[in-house]
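Example 4.3 (complexes with small molecules)
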Amino acid sequence: MPNWGLELVSVGAVAPVLLRKLRDDLAVCLAHPVWIAEREEPVTEAFSRDRRQYSADILLAALLQPEPDEWVKRLGVTEVDLFLPVFAHVLGSAQLNGAVGIASTHRLRPEFSGEPSAPEVVRLRILKEVLHELGHTFGLVHCGLSWCVMSASLLPEHVDLKDPSYCRSCAETMGVPRDGILSFFLKGDTP
Ligand SMILES: [Zn+2]
Ligand SMILES: [Zn+2]
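Answer. The structure with zinc ion bound is encoded below.
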């Protein structure tokens, strides 16, 4: 019996195929159970008219309802653009040492920077972003190793520099395999 599992929640409308691939990729990287919740969390309450963006804080609070079981981490996945009071935008956010986090595909899409769409690029970027926010829920802060998925990234270009994998120290804290990246690329369905 694994000691923790990860529930993915669609926050606003999210392409089902993106969510399913993300679930499968995460299960390979984490070697823990990963599943998609039945519910879809609405985003309307979190919309800021001034900023034309959505409050990550409000969405995190909503994801905490109902409170997940102690062994469950709950990560929201959204297509909308997120902000925090101190940041113009964020790719994601999470409770440090808590139960919930959220990650957004909005700025991870090449279309956002005027480039042609590339679903496989988005697939790898959102995987890394979710792994990163999940690490925060285990109390991990930003890692000094640039390739570790726990290193900081405010821009998609930073995300591209990281591996979909934790360094030894970060992996030990979470109880996940260090060869997540190897498993991910070896499974034959590479991005
Ligand atoms: Zn972070
Ligand atoms: Zn690390």
